[in-house]
Design goal:
mainly beta, four-stranded antiparallel sheet, 17 strands, six-stranded mixed sheet, 212 residues
């Protein structure tokens, strides 16, 4: 199994970093000026540079220690994406009605957390595998489910209803949550020039999203 530590990258550094989603698209141009575009990836992948968040020598030491404990890119970990870490609309609180995660049939007990982007043309459904523990709220048929009637695995994002509380046929199952992104370091060599850092230069600390 690929190593993964359920630990959050230093939050003070992450919240000041840069990054976002990446897609791989193949574009073939023709002599007429037209082009053919094909998606190489079905899912996007996030990339980040944690270097922008390192402003002090103490923070730099903290990142180096974190890098060493993860054995560089060997072991994955959690990353808090300040731009996109909630199921709710920007600025809104988490609600159990935020995201549809399935339709009950009376026998199905488990549902995967997802987040849907867009609505009108080609919505993208993103699988959420690293919800923040204790943040998940669930509703069945528009009514919030009591916390004792379900459990959510923070390592997989799978919501499982307890026996006797399975969603009935036709009932919409929705959820609200906060979440992290599973990532790893995208380098074997963490190069730090202390003289440049003291002069205000930003170290490069690349991270890339992983599938877990």
């Amino acid at each position: 199994m690929t190593p993964f530590h359920e630990v959050l990258f230093p939050l003070g550094v992450a919240l000041k970093s840069a990054g976002g989603p990446e897609r791989r698209t193949e574009i073939v141009g023709f002599g007429s000026g037209r082009e053919q575009r094909n998606a190489r990836w079905a899912d996007s992948r996030r990339r980040y540079d944690a270097g922008y968040g390192v402003k002090t020598f103490e923070a730099l030491q903290q990142v180096v220690a974190f890098f060493e404990e993860r054995r560089g890119p060997l072991t994955g970990f959690r990353w808090r994406d300040r731009l996109d870490c909630s199921s709710a609309a920007p600025g809104a609180p988490v609600s159990p009605l935020d995201q549809g995660i399935g339709i009950g049939d009376g026998t199905r007990a488990s549902y995967q957390l997802v987040k849907t982007y867009g609505a009108g043309f080609a919505p993208y459904v993103r699988t959420i595998t690293k919800p923040v523990a204790g943040s998940v709220r669930v509703a069945v048929g528009g009514a919030e489910a009591a916390a004792a009637t379900f459990a959510c695995d923070p390592a997989t994002g799978v919501v499982t209803f307890a026996p006797g509380h399975l969603p009935p046929p036709g009932a919409a199952v929705t959820a609200g949550f906060q979440f992290d992104v599973p990532v790893r370091f995208d380098t074997d060599y963490l190069e730090v020039d202390l003289s440049a850092f003291a002069a205000g230069a930003i170290p490069k600390i690349p991270l890339v999203e992983i599938r877990v």
